[in-house]
Amino acid sequence: MKLSFSLLLLLTLFLISEVNGQRRKPRPTGAKSPQLPTPPVAEPVEPTELPPPLPPGPPSVFPDCPRECFCPTHFPDALYCDSRNLRRVPLIPSRIHYLYLQNNFIDNLQEESFKNSTELKWINLDNNRLQKVDKQILQKLNNLTFLYLEKNQLKEVPSFLPTSLEQLRLSRNQISKIPTGVFSKLEQLILLDLHHNKLSDGVFNKNTFNGLKNLMQLNLAHNLLRKMPSGVPSTVHQFFLDRNSIEDIPNDYFKEFPNLTFLRLNYNQLSDKGLPKNAFNISNLLVLHLAHNNLTQVPFINTKLEHLYLNHNAIKKINGTEICPLPFLSYEVFINEPEKAPSLRYLRLDGNQLKPPIPLDLMLCFRLLQSVVI
Ligand SMILES: *[C@@H]1O[C@H](CO)[C@@H](O)[C@H](O)[C@H]1NC(C)=O
Ligand SMILES: *[C@@H]1O[C@H](CO)[C@@H](O)[C@H](O)[C@H]1NC(C)=O
Ligand SMILES: *[C@@H]1O[C@H](CO)[C@@H](O)[C@H](O)[C@H]1NC(C)=O
Ligand SMILES: *[C@@H]1O[C@H](CO)[C@@H](O)[C@H](O)[C@H]1NC(C)=O
Ligand SMILES: *[C@@H]1O[C@H](CO)[C@@H](O)[C@H](O)[C@H]1NC(C)=O
Ligand SMILES: *[C@@H]1O[C@H](CO)[C@@H](O)[C@H](O)[C@H]1NC(C)=O
Known about the structure:
By secondary structure, this protein is low in regular secondary structure. It has helices spanning 2-10, 320-323, 331-336, 360-365; strands spanning 78-80, 98-100, 122-124, 146-148, 167-169, 191-193, 217-219, 238-240, 262-264, 287-289, 307-309, 346-348, 371-373. The chain has a 13-stranded parallel beta sheet with strand order 1-2-3-4-5-6-7-8-9-10-11-12-13, with no helix packed on it. The chain is elongated, with a radius of gyration of 25 Å. The two termini are 24 Å apart. The structure holds 2-acetamido-2-deoxy-beta-D-glucopyranose (6 copies). One 2-acetamido-2-deoxy-beta-D-glucopyranose binds at residues 64, 91, 93-94, 116. One 2-acetamido-2-deoxy-beta-D-glucopyranose binds at residues 119, 142-143.
C-alpha cells in the first residue's frame, strides 16, 4: 500500500471539478492559402440583389492578369480573385498554379475560363454559389492537387475530377448524393471532407468509396447518419463522425482499419447497448472522442490509446480493474519498463455523474496518466 501511495504522488494529477463547455476543436491539417487583405464586401441594397462586382484594379505588370483580379509581382504563379463580388471565373492565364476565387457569387464554372490553365495545382472556390460542377471542366487539370468547394450549394459530389487530386473539401454544402464511381480514379486522394452536408445512411454501400486507395482523412461529421457508414477505405488514419445520430457500432466494424489513429464520435446517440465489448480495441488508435453521448460505462480501450474523451455522458462509476487493457504492472516492472504500461495520458470524465476522488485501481492500471478531468 505504501508503495502504491508513493507512486500516486509521482503522478501529476490535476483534478478539475468542472470544465465548462467543449474544448476548441483541432482543425484538420491542410494549409490554407496565404491571404491578402481584401476590401470589405458592400452590403446589397435589396436583400435579393447581389452586390456589384468591384471596379477593376490598377493595371498589372503582367499583361495577362485579368483586370478584376490581383497578380502579385513576387508570386507570378498566384492569382487572387477572391472577395470581389465576381459572378464568373475570369480567363485564367497558363502560368497560374494557385487560384483564389473564394467569397464571390460564382454560380457556374465555364470551360473557357480554364482552357489555358493546365498547370493549376490549387483552386479555392469556397463560399460561392455553385450548385453543380459541369462535366469535364476540371477533369483535364491534371496537375490539380487541392480543390476547395466549401460553402457552396452542391447537391452531390462532383463527377469527373482530375486524377491528381489529393485534397477535396466539400463541407457546408447540401450534398445528399454520392454518384456511383465518382471516386473511382482518385487514387491519390488523401483527404476527403464532407462535413456539414445532408448525407444519410442510404448513400453508403460497400462501393461508395471505391478507388480511394490512399485516403487518410475522412470527415463525415454533421450529417444525418444513424449508422456507421459502410465501404470506408481501410487506409484511413483519421475518421470524424461527430454530430450525427449514430446509435451503435457493428461488431468488428473497426477491424478493417489497422492504421486508424484518430477517431471522433462526439455528439451522437451511442449507448452501452450499442457497443460490442471490443468496439474500440483498435490496435493503433491514439485518440478517441466519445463526448456527448449516452454511455453509462467506460468502454474497453486498446493499450496504445493516449487521449480519451468521455465527458458529458451518463457514467456513474468507473472500475479501473475492469477496463484495464492489461493486467496491472508491478511497481518494479513499471520502473524498469514503463513502455509496458497502457499509454493513456489524458482522460476527460467531466459532465458525468462521477465525483472525485479518482479510484485507485484506475491509477494502478494507467500509470502514465498525467491528467484526469472529473
Ligand atoms: C492561351 O495559351 C496559348 C498557348 O500557350 C497562348 O498563345 C494564348 O495567348 C493564351 N491565351 C491567354 C488569354 O492567356
Ligand atoms: C503537370 O502535369 C503534367 C502531366 O501530368 C506533367 O508532365 C507536368 O510536369 C506537370 N507540371 C507541373 C508544374 O507539375
Ligand atoms: C498501414 O500502414 C502500413 C505502414 O505504413 C502500411 O504498410 C499498410 O499498407 C497500411 N494498411 C492499410 C490497410 O492501409
Ligand atoms: C484487443 O486487441 C488485441 C490486439 O488485436 C488483442 O490481443 C486483445 O486480446 C484484445 N483485447 C480483448 C480484451 O479482447
Ligand atoms: C439515454 O439512455 C437512457 C437509459 O438507457 C434513456 O432513458 C435516454 O432516453 C437516453 N437518452 C438519449 C438522449 O438517448
Ligand atoms: C472492480 O472490478 C473487479 C473485477 O470485476 C472487482 O473485483 C472489484 O471489486 C471492482 N471494484 C469496485 C470498487 O467495484
